[in-house]
Amino acid sequence: MKNYLLHICLLFCCTTALLSFDAVAQNPKQSKAYAKKAKAAKKVKKEAYTPVYHDADSDGDGVPNTRDKCIHTPKGEPVTPFGCPYDVDFDGIYDYEDSCKNEPGPRENHGCPWGDKDNDGILDNVDACPNVPGLKTFKGCPDTDGDGIPDPQDKCPKQPGTIQYEGCPPPFIDKDGDGVSDYDDLCPETPGVKTNRGCPELKPEEKAAIQKAFDNLLFETGSDVIVSSSYDALNELAKVLVNNPRYNLYLEGHTDNVGDDEANLDLSRRRALSVKNYLVSRGVLSNRITTDGFGETRPKATNETPEGRKLNRRVEMLIIQ
């Protein structure tokens, strides 16, 4: 028992001595170096590297990329605070590429509005013949001979023709031998005279009735309504037709060149139809009257004067058999 206690006591004493020895045996220089190293490590961790970002200006216009909405502006071009070039006319085309900076226009015309070189009222971008005045009906191209075929498609632009012959008149055929081509002859089966479009010559009283109706025929402005002062002359024409059942009537409506081409064409047709309807109301059978309208394509006189335009606003009347 005593030996056991002695043994424990010796073990405790030795352990304490060893611990004391270890603490005392530590090298002071090493301890100082260790502490310095630990302090340096702590300092490096505390002052971590922070990257520096440079605000670039790719196009050199003075507006950094982070704020520049147009980073490819040509060098030296004035820009807005957002880095985009100016667009004074607000047409979506920057001034440096806009040929008309103060007038809005489409990009396909370099920022300029479309013009009308031939002054026919049809802008150049939709005008198939921008250098020659023409009609809206034919996309700005003229129809010189009034045959309904625009000049660029007409092989005989100065002679009325047919589509079948590409705008040229058909070969001369005169079945009734009256010297008027069947193409122009309103009575191709009956010999007539040129003054009556190939139909038999009218009696003096019949000519007078037609002339009177033509001279006195008036319409309300821009309308197909017949003015009441025209009724007496039309009544006399109706009597001629009723008393001569073999006669038929051909009516052609025409206008001047004032206003829209398509509207004029429609108005010319409606006016011819109004005359027909009036004559039918006076006893003439409907199937004896044929109507057509040509708008402004067949002027009788110049459209440059009020007198000429008045002559062009007409409904021509031809009695045929």
What can you tell me about this protein's structure?
- The protein is mainly α.
- It is 30% helix and 6% strand.
- It has six helices and three strands, in the order ααααβαβαβ.
- It has helices at residues 2-25, 28-46, 204-216, 231-243, 261-281, 306-312, and strands at 248-254, 289-293, 314-320.
- Strands 2-1-3 form a three-stranded mixed β-sheet.
- It is rod-shaped, with a radius of gyration of 50 Å.
- Residues 9-25 have low confidence and may be disordered.
Note the topology.
Blueprint: H1 2-25, H2 28-46, H3 204-216, H4 231-243, E1 248-254, H5 261-281, E2 289-293, H6 306-312, E3 314-320
Parallel strand pairs: 1-2
Antiparallel strand pairs: 1-3
Question: What's the helical proportion of residues?
Answer: 25-40%
Overall CATH class of the domain at 202-320: Alpha Beta
User: How would you describe the shape?
Assistant: rod-shaped
Task: Give the helix/strand class.
Answer: mainly alpha
**In CATH terms, what is the fold-level topology of the domain at 202-320?**
60s Ribosomal Protein L30, Chain: A
Largest sheet: 3 strands, mixed
Extract low-pLDDT stretches.
9-25
| Beta-strand percentage range | 5-15%
Order of helices and strands: HHHHEHEHE
**Number of strand segments:** 3
Widest β-sheet, arrangement of strands: 2-1-3
